[in-house]
């Protein structure tokens, strides 16, 4: 098992544990606001204007105006904390950028106004083949092929010089300055944000799990707010 594969395996295990804790937290908050005269489960179908239906409405309201705001605030704090760390210019992320989208798909998205796709395609060019990308970071490609069924496309930046350093580092685009903007990205140990990611990972996983659970509740609760 490679070190990188170990990191992901460990994260999946951690995520499962955190997810189960978050299920309990959300469930108890849902139960806390259950009206005393409501009977049944939050996912039941209740009569119109019944106590059960008001409970479902209150739960959806709590998700929208309370828990979602808490998640958003904590996520902003994680991103603000990132400012204490700095890029070391190792160029790993310039050598091997991954996307679930093919070059043609990214081009189309950019033409349709997707800002990220537009910036991405203005910087990165695709590797001619997976074999070529594999030479750059063999461990990562092996891990992806072992763990992900979906196709992943690999890109690199032509601004890298012969020493594999950015030839225009001081004027690098915003998308390069912002990377990594997700604390759950898999980063090499050489990355200046590696420690940031390690420190905030438990909270980021908890927030991610809460978002997944809330989405599940939203889909499964039969009551739907009437649009005014
Ligand atoms: S512009 Fe520079 S920092 Fe940005 S991806 Fe290219 S080489 Fe890396
Ligand atoms: S963001 Fe991280 S991986 Fe990318 S060049 Fe900077 S230190 Fe290296």
Sequence-ordered SSE layout with sheet pairings:
Blueprint: H1 3-32, H2 51-81, H3 92-95, E1 97-99, H4 103-111, H5 115-123, E2 125-126, H6 130-136, H7 138-147, E3 153-156, H8 174-178, H9 194-220
Antiparallel strand pairs: 1-3, 2-3
This protein binds iron/sulfur cluster (SF4) (2 copies).
Mean of all residue-level pLDDT scores? 89
Give the cofactors and ligands.
iron/sulfur cluster
In total, the number of strands is 3
Helix content: 55-70%
What structural category characterises the helix and strand content?
mainly alpha
Distance between the termini: 56 Å
The poorly predicted ranges are none
Describe what this molecule looks like in 3D.
By secondary structure, the chain is mostly helical. It has 9 helices and 3 strands. It has helices spanning 3-32, 51-81, 92-95, 103-111, 115-123, 130-136, 138-147, 174-178, 194-220; strands spanning 97-99, 125-126, 153-156. Strands 1-3-2 form a 3-stranded antiparallel sheet. The longest helix is centred in the N-terminal third of the chain and has 31 residues, at 51-81. The model has no long low-confidence stretch (mean pLDDT 89). Bound molecules: iron/sulfur cluster (2 copies). The site of one iron/sulfur cluster has 11 residues, from α3.
